[in-house]
Amino acid sequence: MGYGHQRTAFPLKGLTTEGKIINANDYPGIPKRDRQIWEITRRFYEFVSKFKRIPLIGEFVFFIFDQFQKIFSFYPKRNLSKSNLQLKEIFSLIKKGWGRDLIEKLAPHRNEVSGAGLKRKPLPLVSTFFVPAFMAEYFNYPGEIFCVVCDADISRTWAPLSPKTSRIKYFAPTERVIERLKLYGIKEENIFLTGYPLPQNLIGDKKLEILKNNLKYRLLNLDPEKRFFKYYQPLTKKYLGDLPSKPNHPLTLMFAVGGAGAQKEIGIKIVKKLASEGIKIILIAGIKKKIKEYFKKNTRGLDVEIIFGKDIEDYFQKFNQALKQTDILWTKPSELSFYSALGIPIIIAPSIGSQEEFNKRWLLKSGFGLLQEDPNYVEQWLFDWLKRGYLAEAAMQGFVEGEKLGIFNISRILANK
């Protein structure tokens, strides 16, 4: 279902016995009917996301679609365990056999025998999307079932039809997700506050050496007038130690579109406005050739780096490597919102969908990101923000207050099972 759930799974593959990820919508031997259901769902979501750009009618159609995945107001707190239409439709398909083949292919682990002739404990199943977790529970997967949440707040659809009796356990990135799951009827003992699983090659070990080193150089680029350091130098000294004397890379801004390719026009405006301002611009095309070609065609003759991967793993590796020397991440408030914990300030592009609206609220309330101004004047407001130290402040706020050890927390919980 796009980059979000796959990006969340990517850092976890090192915890698996074979170092790989199983895609529920595209694995060897997947039944034709199961593949069609996944494909229809994906295409519909991408169509609606792109269609939203059409004035009036596009926004209206997306509004209707978004009602099915809407996250309701948290206050007043009340019982929200009643299932919604989207959830009922998902389980209607599961009851007709959607996902049975996948779970049966995974379930043979129940019969594995160790060298000593003892039955091995079934491996836990960890999903970064709620549907495979529902499938595993419905078709009686013999091991424990975990679901990694990849948004700062979630709709009722993340919890199954019968939440009070469900054995699915959740890894929550925020305290708000924990409270939501409780309102949806999930038992408290089945919820773990772990934080989002950030890539370990951007963190280092639990002492965060890689993260801290990258942030030291980033802060030099984000505070050219030393406005931030004037007030918060003791804070940076406490968390990071002494900073280098000069940056090790030019001021770098990365613009990332979503899997559906929405908002790619913003990337072109950024390049055309900033190409002559001494800023390195990175455009993220993901694995979509059409988006790569769109970027190349519309930035011809301009100094820009375009990141494109031949497959999802290649893309994520290139993306993570580029982030090490990225100072500003400009993106819609997707799962990338959690990358603010790396000490990377987020410029928030318009949200697409209810869950992104709540991610945006979380970023703003936490002080980890700033709403984009008009991209047509980015060469004006961006430099004003840099001079005033706004982006340096957001970077440090994200590092200090954001949860950075999600991958280690998840690993620890799984190891104890």
How is this fold's topology laid out?
Blueprint: H1 3-9, H2 32-51, H3 57-66, H4 85-95, H5 100-106, E1 125-127, H6 130-138, E2 145-148, E3 168-172, H7 175-183, E4 191-193, H8 209-222, H9 227-240, E5 252-256, H10 264-274, E6 280-286, H11 289-298, E7 305-308, H12 312-323, E8 328-331, E9 346-348, H13 354-366, E10 369-371, H14 378-388, H15 390-401, H16 406-415
Parallel strand pairs: 1-2, 2-3, 3-4, 5-6, 5-8, 6-7, 8-9, 9-10
Q: Mind explaining what this structure looks like?
A:
The chain is an alpha/beta fold. The protein has two domains: 3-193, no CATH class; 201-401, Glycogen Phosphorylase B (Rossmann fold), CATH 3.40.50.2000. The protein contains 16 helices and ten strands. The strands form two sheets. A six-stranded parallel β-sheet has the order 7-6-5-8-9-10, sandwiched between helices. The chain has a four-stranded parallel β-sheet with strand order 1-2-3-4. Strand 6 (280-286), helix 11 (289-298) and strand 7 (305-308) form a beta-alpha-beta unit. Helix 8 (209-222) runs antiparallel to helix 15. It is globular and about 60 Å long. The mean pLDDT is 91.
CATH class categorisation of the largest domain: Alpha Beta
Based on secondary structure, the structural category is: alpha/beta
Give a count of the beta strands, DSSP E runs of length 2 or more.
10
The portion of residues assigned to helices is 40-55%
Beta percentage is 5-15%
Return the average pLDDT rounded to an integer. Answer: 91
Order of H and E elements: HHHHHEHEEHEHHEHEHEHEEHEHHH
Number of helices: 16
Could you say which overall geometry the principal axes of the C-alpha atoms support? globular
